[in-house]
Structure formats: C-alpha cells, structure tokens
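Re-run with default settings, no changes from the original entry. Doing this only to confirm the output is reproducible before filing.
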Amino acid sequence: MDQTTFSVSPLDEESGQPQPVGKSVADRLYVHISALLSLTPEQAQSLQQASDLLDASEHRFNVLKFGIDGWQITLLNYPDFEAEAFPILREAWTIDLRAGVARYRTYAESQNPPILHRKELLVAKDFPRYATFAQLTKNAEAIGLFTDPVRIGFRQSWERLLEIKGYRVVDFDLVPIGNREDFTDAGDPTAFEGVARHLTALTRSRASAPMQILERHGFLDGARSIFDYGCGRGGDVRWLKECGVHAQGWDPHFAPDESTCACDLVNLGFVVNVIEDFEERQEAIRRAFVLANELLVVSVMLEYQDSQRGIPYADGVLTSRRTFQKYFSQAELRTFVATTLDEEPISVAPGIVFVFKDKQAEQRFLYGRVQSRSRAVRLAALYRPPRVPGPPRAPKQTRQDRLDAQMEKAAPLVDALLAKCLELGRPPDKAEFELYEAVREAFGSLDKALRLMILHKPNVAEMLAAARQLRADSLRVYLAGQLFEKRRAYKSLEPVLQRDIRGFFSDYRSAMESGRELIYSLGVIENVGRACHEAAEKGLGWLEEGQSLQLHTSMVERLPPILRTYVAVGTVLYGDVTGAALVKIHIRSGKLTLMQFDDFTGSALPKMTQRVKLDLRNQDMQIFDYVAPYDPPYLYRKSRFVDEEIANYAEQVAFEEALDKLALLNFDGFGPSAEAFDALLSERRYVVDGMQLMRSREIPAADQSCGKNFTYRQLIECGDTWSCLRPDNLPREPGSYSAMLDLTVFILDPLIEYFGMVSLTYGFCSSGLARKISGRIAPRLDQHAAHEKKRDGSVVCERLGAAVDIVVDDEDMEEVARWVISNLPFDRLYFYGPSKPIHVSYGPQHSRAAYRMVEGKSGALLPRAF
C-alpha cells in the first residue's frame, strides 16, 4: 500500500463531522487514501472486505473507486499521483464483493492508459498540494479542457486536445504554445451456352474482399503492379487507381479488348466458382498464375447453409438467372489450387488463398504474419525521455561531457539505430541498415555506438532486451507454424530469416526445436490457462477463468507466445484471423471461435454476422452465417474484449455505463435477444445512435402506456382546471414525454406498488394551461412544464424533469411523503398537509430536496425543510 500519511478531513463547522471527500464520475466515487477517515461506514466496510479478500497490504495502491451499488470496489495505483499534473494509471485491482472475485489489470505496456483529472476532489483540503491541484483544475476549465469529459480520460485523446487548444503541461502549469520549438531528437473463359456468367459480376461501391486482404497485408503500397484477371465491371481496378496503385484488368464480357499482361500481383477474384467446366476452371488458374511475378490471389464462394439451392449442374448449381456457382469448402479450395498449380497455397481468409511464385516473398509473408512489428513501435512509444534539465552548467572537459557532446552531435544517427534495433530485436546487418556506414564513421563501430547509447540513454538496455525477447518469440511462433509444412533447407530461407535464426539461436536445429517445444506446450491445459490469465491481466481480452479468453484480433500479436502459436495453428485452416473481429481461445477443448460483426468499431452494439468454429485437434471448420431468418445477436459489453487503444473505446465505456445505470436487463452470458433488447429500450424511450444511448425524438400517441399504471393522456389531462376548461395541453417536445415516463417509472409505479393506486390532481402543464391558472403556480421552478420551451427557444423550467401532484385515498399524506423521501430517487417534494396532495418531481439533478409548506405571517405558504 502507498505510504502516504492518512489525514482526517477538515471538520464541518455546523455538524462537527468530516467534510465529504471524493470525485463522482458516472455513479462511481474516487477517493485518495490520504482521506480514508472521510469514508462512510458502508465504504469503510467495503474496503475492509476487499482487503480481506485481496490481502491489500501486499499491493501498492493510492486511489479507491467505489461502485454505486456497494458491491464493487477498485484499488488503483497512480505512482505519480503527487508528482504529475495528470498522472497515469499503472495498475488496478477490481473486487466484486458479492462474487468474492478479484481481477487484476496492468497498464504498464499500454500506449493509451487512463489519465486522472481534478485531483483536488480526491483529497481533503489540508492535503499538502491541494491548492496546487485546485489551481490546475481552474486553469484547465478556463481554456475549455473539460467540456467533453468522455474523451479526455485517456492519454492519447488528452494530448491531442492539449495540442488543439495550443497548450502544453509543464510541471503543474498549462503553458501556451506561442512559437514553433524545434528539438534535435532523435485464358479466355468464354460464356458456355445456357450459362450467363457475366450476370455474376457485381457493381462494387467498395473494394472487394481479396483487395482488402491485400491492403491489410501491405501489398497495395504502390510499389507493386496488379492485374485483375476477370475484373468484371472493373470496380476494383478503378479503386486501385484512385489509391495510386498501377492496375489493369481484363474480362471476357466487360473488358474483352483489354490485353493481359504480367504484373507483380494477379487477382483471380470470384472467377473459378462461376466456371462450370472443371478443365476450363483449371486453365483459368494456370493462365492467371503465369501472369504473376510474385503472387496470385484466388478467391471463391464458400459453402454455407443455403449454398446448394438451385438446379444441380456439373459439380455446382444453376441459379434462376442462368448463372452457375460452384461452392467450395476451404480445404477443397486449397486442394484444387495445389493440384492445379503444383504449389502449396496459403489460406489468408475464408475463401481466399495466396499462391506465391516468389518463394522468398512467401517466407517474408509467413514470417511477417507472426511478427509483432507494432510491439517495437509500442516500446519506443512507452519510452519517455527524462525531463529537460535546468540552465546548462559551465563547460567542463570531462570524459562524460565529451561523450554527451558526441551523442548530441550524432543524435539523428543514434535515434535511427535505436529504432532499427527495436524493430529487429538485434543489431542490424549492413544490408538492413542504410545508415550503417555513417554510424561506423561517427563512432568507429556499430557495437561501440550501441554501448554508448545504452550508457547515455536511460531505459535503453531494458527496451532492447524487451525487443529481443519479442522478436525471438515471434521467430519461435513462426517456426512452430512451419512444423505443419515441409521443412525447408536453411540455405533456401529468406536472408532476414537466416539472420534472425543466427541472432537468436545457435543454429537452425536449435531454432526448430524451440518451435517444437512451443507446439508441445499447447497440449498442457495448465500452460494455456496460465497464458490466458497473464494476457487478461494486461488488458488483452476477457477471461472466463478456466474456460476461455476472448479478445479483438488486433491484439493477437501482443499475446504470450503460446497463445500466438495457438492462433497461428488456426490460420492453417481459416487464414488470417485478423479478418475477423473477435477470437475466442478455448482453454480446454483445443478450439478457436472467430466472430465477425456488421460494424464492430463504429457501433456500441455491433451485430454478429458470422461465427466460425475451428477444431484444431481434428482440423475441422464450421461456419455459421447469421442471415435471414436468423436474428443476428448483439455483442453486449464490447469494452471487455478490447482495450483503451482501440478506436472509440472511451465512448464505448460511457455507453455501457449509461446502459448499466438504466438497469434494464441482465447482460450475463449471451444477454437478451436483439429483438427483446430493442423492444425494452423502445418502451423506455431510448435509442442507440452509433456509440451513444439517446432518448427517442419521436412523439408517442397520447394513449400509449406511460409506465405500468398510466398513459400519457392521464398525466396530461388531469386536474380540476383542465377538466373544467379542457385547453390544448399536449406537450410539443419529445423530451417532455421522456421526462413523464421517467417520473412514472421511478416515482409513481413504485409508490403505487406499495400504497395502491393514487389520484393525479395536477400533471403536465403547457403554456396554454398555465395561462388559465396563472398566479397559483411557478412554471419556472415547479417542473410541471417538463422540457417545454418558450417562444425564444429557452426552456420554461431549467430544472427540466417532470412533476405531478398526487393524493392517496385513505392514507395520511405525511406518511406517504416520508416513504417517498426514504425510498425513491425524487428531485423535489412539497408537503401541504396530512389530507392534501403532495407535489413530487423527478429530474436530472436528483436533489432529494423535501419541504413542508408552512403558512407565514402574511398568509403566504413558505417552504421549510421537511
């Protein structure tokens, strides 16, 4: 535990009790451990239970986070809480007191960890740096840094916001950036009679699947030419040209006059599956392969639930439009290509294979698939240089000064060398580093430059060691995957691969043995389970203890080597797993589940479109497509399967917190069906709009249900004045209907459940009704106008919410008022007498303010605290 001295919060002058301390965020309370004595008895009890469960004395934490329900507490470690203006979260322990379960999460390797703001709210006013914290918050508010709290909770968005605002943080000051500051840092398949092949060509509005696969793997960088063999209507060719790629295409129907030519890449996209003649099908692949200098991409239609609908014809089916389709399995596609070309294809995605003519390019591709290239970037991003020192000291001719001058002069070379070493995990060869000779000239040798760099730059030794381990692990994963293929001779390996083997292992035999050990370790369930637990602690997915680890496929390369090997084995069957959104690693069964969604990053509740189950032990694959009549399920609690570095993470967390606050449904397990969820959400006048949970903008019918016991009409057409005069009293604003619904759900329905039916004496009040009863009401304060607006567009009552006056027959209304005060989340309550109606409202402030209306000397009713 952090050794910060505990202190008692200053006493409140009136009550003599400690003043409340803590920052409330989305119904959670944050408190620094220096203010433990300000905790409520319930919070102190929760902390004691968490400490007993976790043995908190052995853990370093300095901030507590309490959940509103009292059953969850999180211990947070901000190592630089006092030293940094906006400290970064290093690690957290989340304890579920009801389940008796604790989860650990470290952010040590995160490039986008959570940031802490408004620290003065977490401590007592006698905390040594309270005034400094408070002034920093005041300055930040003045320049508008806290206007959108959803997006500022993580480092990357926070730093972007600071840059946009034109400020930077120096110690505990926000300093404007007024000037630029430069620092030296470093065939011819013609139509067969009776079959209209050309009708299968699509008019594409976006790149086809094989083109997206090529782009994902970096082949469309403009350095390679590409030929689309059977280009159809030419959508891909146009898209490639727009992207700056040299592209051409030929098609027997749509582009028969275009000539075929050899290119680096050749795409045979969804061509062979529309050719009904087997030999002609083979000839198309052979002709396409002849044109490829480096790589042929073959894609086909895959078998699915309804793929055999149509009239059987040859080895496929004829459709109602006289087109032919041959549906392949993944294994059948690989076998067909291999037997036709006498080349081993590589599965890269369902229905898509690569066939390399350039074998060294093939090795680079296979090796690259298991490389953690971004990990080197991550290491470099995690590196933080020391703070800029004060005024320079007087020149001294010491050895250290000469070394400093040499390093400063050669800083660009040193930074380039460090970047290359982090990328490779080892010192670069002359052929791998274009500045090799420049470094030798500046330092005498590459080794000397490395030694000086390690001495001069803090943390470099640790970074290089971590990069070496990452690269060695990637090599082991690659070699483990190669055990499923025919072993290649060392001399035939790609040069970079040879250098890696020499650099990380004594010889090729030792390297292959290391890969074999990794494969063998997959057979021990405990090894897989332990690795899954380790990954979850780093925020890499959601762990169901002893069962599975589920995560976004972009994070696969950051998994421990044994899990990367587990997934790599799946690529033999499926292809590139990053084509899916989520991967589920089953700890005990030797299976992988891959899931695709309609808009994973852009939707808070993406719908599953496909699920693929891979049985690695039996080399079997099952594909389940969620198409009509199946109702695609929602993915609930998406934030569990990603981390803070994925796009829209902060918005996702905010959405889930808002959804939890509604307490509509239990989302354990798979959660409710999409239909059931949508119906309940609509009933409560909510809609999901992208990443936000918003109130409906629709105006409901007056006779539509408003809660369990009323309709909207009953809340609108009530009271003596309305009954006598019947003015137009319909709300004009959608927000008014939502406010009335909340009033019934949170106040009236529970009250009726306890006391029985109530009578409404005054409900919604429009401007028309208000004019009839002027002098007896206060529309600007009483919330009966709900969200209605004046002619100038401003709201009638700034408190918003909604209000109603009620009476319960045969009940003492004081008893009713006391029950409401004790049990319901009301905003304002006014009590007029034991037999008179009470006024109660529900609004966004949740002030829980209750008053007795007492007659004053002048006869006017005055509010007094209940």
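Residues 705-865 form a domain with the Muramoyl-pentapeptide Carboxypeptidase; domain 2 fold (CATH 3.30.1380.10). The radius of gyration is 34 Å.
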